[in-house]
């Protein structure tokens, strides 16, 4: 019986892993954005002001990233552009809201940041709407 695995992954395993990573990151972040979206009036006066933007604008940007960009990420639609606001949001979570505490309160945000950066490097993968749209353009 062999206990080792081949060291070079197949394209199917890489594309599957990319899909699971996109889904996992989206599922993790969507509830945070949905909560802010449904309780906008409650949060807008106390939400942190980012880059001297108003509390409402900062909250709207967070909702856009956490909810809408996470949906795009899960679908694999406009994947890399959707990751930019998510990376900025995770960066703010870790280095502004939690003052860089990657081993304590900011650890979840740090894991999201690493996941988003990994998705940015990998791209959407073959199991994405981006891949389907790209194939359609190639065929026409």
* Total count of strands: 0
Gap between N and C termini, in Å? 49 Å
Assembly of the depicted chains:
single chain
What's the gyration radius in Å? 17 Å
Question: pLDDT under 50 segments (min length 5)?
Answer: none
Helix vs. strand class: mainly alpha
The coarse silhouette is globular
Structure description:
With 140 residues, the protein is mostly helical. The protein has helices at residues 11-38, 40-43, 55-75, 79-97, 107-122, 129-139. Helix 1 (11-38) packs across helix 5, helix 3 packs across helix 4 and helix 4 runs antiparallel to helix 5. It starts with 10 loop residues before the first helix and ends with a helix.
Summarize the topology:
Elements: H1 11-38, H2 40-43, H3 55-75, H4 79-97, H5 107-122, H6 129-139
What are the main properties of this structure?
6 helices, 140 residues, mainly alpha
């Amino acid at each position: 019986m062999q206990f080792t695995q081949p060291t070079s992954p197949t394209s199917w395993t890489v594309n599957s892993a990319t899909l699971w990573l996109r889904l996992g990151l989206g599922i993790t972040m969507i509830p945070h954005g949905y909560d802010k979206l449904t309780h906008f009036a409650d949060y807008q006066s106390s939400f942190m002001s980012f880059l001297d933007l108003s509390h409402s604008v900062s909250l709207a940007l967070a909702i856009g990233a956490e909810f809408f960009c996470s949906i795009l990420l899960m679908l694999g639609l406009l994947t890399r552009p959707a990751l930019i606001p998510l990376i900025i949001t995770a960066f703010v979570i870790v280095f502004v809201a939690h003052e860089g505490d990657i081993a304590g309160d900011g650890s979840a945000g740090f894991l999201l940041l690493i996941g988003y950066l990994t998705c940015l490097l990998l791209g959407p993968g073959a199991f994405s709407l981006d891949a389907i749209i790209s194939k359609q353009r190639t065929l026409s």
